[in-house]
């Protein structure tokens, strides 16, 4: 089969690799029908994630069909159409029992495309299949469902829920890439007074408006002042960092009000300064986190009922064999306008939800 293989910083290729086999009785092998590229994959290619060894197949998001399961798998069987989660969960360790699957101690967590071969291939082995794949309702297309493998649960859990967004809040989302846009969309579920999106790219700010942002700001034009003006000088109740560079994290801490929340979602490859000389007195809560995907079943139900604007985030589609071209388009988003790229076959027929 073919897969997209990391060969070290700046080197990768779509090439022939061995088919995956079952290694444990809790494994499943999935034929990949749709896959996408994440900003974290770009970090890996830059060398920002040294745990990824050369020779690893990248990718941690997919939709596909079960082709083989181990003897201990109970919840899915060959022929089932499933979402492959970006997080693998053993279901037995202390963290899994608490629903904190991202910190799994039993060989799970973020392992696909990180510690083991991932989803950007024609087939993928998924450990602990009972908790790590989700059967898909017919009302959700492959193209829409693949966005629920990572970006929507990440934005919702690590951004909106960790940030404790409440009705009437002022929410600022710094970074209007796919994660930031999903944060805008899911923050709206909590009826904030206003959502402000901050980015450098005009096209992404326009996308944020379409997804529900009430105001937008160019990151080069003192967005802190806009936030102050809109809040009577108080600052934002919740600021979500969705970029992952020191400058944006420090900007977030300047925009939050006393008693507010800064929810860091971005993947940081360099140290950021924590200005405790200013923050120690402000009762500010700062959260970090890796997604647990415990919200995925809820988000799937919402997508099936048309409550999540997943389709608006997909700007480019490719067949799997054009993986290298897709990476170029996604990495060059400033020029291509790419938000999410989806690779795979033709869209499946959608089964309309029944009405009573």
TrEMBL record:
Highest taxon of source: Bacteria
GO molecular function: oxidoreductase activity; zinc ion binding
PROSITE patterns in the record: ADH_ZINC
Keywords carried by this UniProt record: Metal-binding, Oxidoreductase, Zinc
Keyword Oxidoreductase assigned: yes
Alphabetized CDD domains for the sequence: FDH_like_ADH2
Family the entry assigns: Belongs to the zinc-containing alcohol dehydrogenase family.
Protein name per UniProt: Zinc-dependent alcohol dehydrogenase family protein
Organism phylogeny: Bacteria, Bacillati, Actinomycetota, Actinomycetes, Kitasatosporales
């Amino acid at each position: 089969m073919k897969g997209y293989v990391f060969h070290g910083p700046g080197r990768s290729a779509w090439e022939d690799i061995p088919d995956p086999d079952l290694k444990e009785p809790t494994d499943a092998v999935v034929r990949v029908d749709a896959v996408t590229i994440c900003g974290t994959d770009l970090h890996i290619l830059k060398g920002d994630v040294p745990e990824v060894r050369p020779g690893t197949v990248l990718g941690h998001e997919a939709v596909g069909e079960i082709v083989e399961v181990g003897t201990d798998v109970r919840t899915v069987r060959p022929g089932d159409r499933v979402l492959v989660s970006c997080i693998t969960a053993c279901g037995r360790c202390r963290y899994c029992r608490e629903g904190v699957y991202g910190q799994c101690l039993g060989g799970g967590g973020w392992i696909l495309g990180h510690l083991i071969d991932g989803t950007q291939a024609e087939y993928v082995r998924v450990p602990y299949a009972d908790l790590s794949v989700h059967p898909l309702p017919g009302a959700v297309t492959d193209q829409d469902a693949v966005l629920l493998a990572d970006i929507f649960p990440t934005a919702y859990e690590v951004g909106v829920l960790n940030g404790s967004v409440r009705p009437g809040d002022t929410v600022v989302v710094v970074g209007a890439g796919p994660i930031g846009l999903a944060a805008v969309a899911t923050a709206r579920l909590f009826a904030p007074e206003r959502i402000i999106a901050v980015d450098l790219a005009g096209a992404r700010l326009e996308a944020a408006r379409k997804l529900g942002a009430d105001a937008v700001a160019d990151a080069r034009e003192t967005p802190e002042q806009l936030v102050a003006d809109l809040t009577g000088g108080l600052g934002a109740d919740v600021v979500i960092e969705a970029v992952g560079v020191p400058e944006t994290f420090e900007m977030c801490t300047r925009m939050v009000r006393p008693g507010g929340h800064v929810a860091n979602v971005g993947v940081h490859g360099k140290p950021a300064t924590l200005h405790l000389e200013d923050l120690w007195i402000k009762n500010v809560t700062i959260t970090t986190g890796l997604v647990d995907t415990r919200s995925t079943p809820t988000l799937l139900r919402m997508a099936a009922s048309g409550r999540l604007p997943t389709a608006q985030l997909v700007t480019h589609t490719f067949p799997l064999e054009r993986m290298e071209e897709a990476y170029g388009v996604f990495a060059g988003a400033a020029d291509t306008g790419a938000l999410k790229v989806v690779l795979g076959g033709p869209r499946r027929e959608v089964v309309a939800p029944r009405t009573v």
